[in-house]
Amino acid sequence: MAGKLEHLRIYFVTWNVATKYPEEDLHQLLDLGQNNTSRKLPDLYYVGLQEVKAQPQNMVLDMFFEDPWTKSFREVLKKYDYVKIRTQRLQGLVLNLFCLRKHITHLRLIEAQYTRTGFGGMWGNKGAVSIRLNIYGVSMCVVNTHLTPHDHLLADRITDYNTILTNHSFSNSDTSKILFHDYVFWIGDLNFRLNGADLTATDIDLLVKKKQLKPLLARDQLKAVMETGEAFAELHENSITFPPTYKYEFSSQDFDLKRRPSWTDRILYKVNADVYNDVKLSATQHNYKSHFSYVQSDHKPVTGEFDIIIRPTVEDHGVEFQPVTAWFIDEENSVSYKLLGDARPASGDWVGLFHNEFSSLDEYIVYEYVGQALTERIYFNDTALRSPGMYRLVYVAQRGNNIGILGVSPAFPGHHRPA
């Protein structure tokens, strides 16, 4: 596949869900409606949420269980053969990565981080969460942020951005900082408002109703600080053609004029185009829109879809499992595998037993750590397999804070040994 694939399609969602629980159908938001049966499915989905309900008494549980929003998106996407690769959460900030199953063995060096900016960096009610990875020879970092609110606190938003850039660090030396990646996507409730005290909420509402967005966008604080170089100057944003995404009355289509409407919810990106001799990298954005029909939050969700150039000549060396005829319930079972090319085992690597149609890397039934040989047989004890069904094995490379998926076995049956 890597020899033929020249680009990946990536779909981004950002939505401040205002501490509500998921109620509305998510297919249209993900562009997976019944009328879109012929469309090319995105290879990756990134879903960035802000203000997911995060009560202190639930914080321990949140570490071990999916939040309702993540579960709702996963339930939709698993029907289209997506696997949830990683969730990173910081209180109400959540970033999820979903990948088409056919690509998961090409994911390397997946690492998630967070930076607190609330109350001078002591509290996580504002800040950033991120997921970085390598795929088909390129590196990518996606950042989901919720910055300081309110019209008059522009300086705090600028500080937030620069704090995130400074404090956010990854373990891979080549891409230790956000902007060092080949592709950077920055999404979230950035909370930038419109400049000018002379512009009232009613004025903005009237201009939006007349579809006169240009005079308003000329006042946009984010565009202004990008031009002055104070924040986000390293990134690019495509033209906005949708109305302000904040603030709406709950369950209505009208602005709540106690706040001045503004474009708080954004998707920006950066491409380091000339880092390789064999290819010039680029990102092509196909759409950038808000979804007006979603009414359960005071924000409208925003989506963007991109094609990015990858490096088809770069080989991903991984793991090859030997075919398994069957595993037997209540017996010790085993599988042989070998590492290919320059792939090497490490002490943290493990092989997990999954149901055939697993929709999350968190859904392993049991796992065993691997040995240090390039060719190995790994054994699972007699309590691993408990019920009949179809199963797969997944080899996960665990290197400190990074994980990579080096191999997935063919599906095989698990059942009681015939009498």
Rounded to the nearest angstrom, the radius of gyration is 23 Å
Helix content: 10-25%
Shape: elongated
Question: How many beta-strand runs?
Answer: 20
- Biggest pleated-sheet summary: 6 strands, mixed
Distance between the termini: 43 Å
- Assembly state (oligomeric): single chain
Mean pLDDT: 92
The arrangement of helices and strands along the chain is: EEHHEEEEEHEHHHEEEEEEEEEEEE
- Summed up, the helix count is 6
> Which consecutive residue ranges, at least 5 long each, have pLDDT under 50?
none
The share of residues in extended strands comes to 35-45%
**Helical/strand content category:** mainly beta
Across the major sheet, the strand order is: 3-4-2-1-11-10
Structural features, described:
With 419 residues, the protein is mainly beta. The chain contains 6 helices and 20 strands. The strands form 4 sheets. The protein has a 6-stranded mixed β-sheet, with helices on one face. A hairpin with a 2-residue loop joins strand 3 and strand 4.
What descriptive keywords fit this protein?
419 residues, mainly beta, six-stranded mixed β-sheet
Produce a short descriptive summary.
The chain is mainly beta. It has helices at 59-64, 68-77, 154-167, 201-209, 214-217, 221-228; strands at 7-16, 44-50, 82-90, 93-100, 107-118, 123-135, 138-146, 183-189, 265-271, 283-290, 302-309, 319-321, 327-328, 333-339, 350-355, 366-369, 375-380, 389-399, 402-408, 412-415. The strands form 4 sheets. A 6-stranded mixed β-sheet has the order 3-4-2-1-11-10, covered by helices on one side. Strands 13, 15, 16, 18, 19 and 20 form a 6-stranded mixed β-sheet that branches. A 5-stranded mixed β-sheet has the order 5-6-7-8-9, covered by helices on one side.
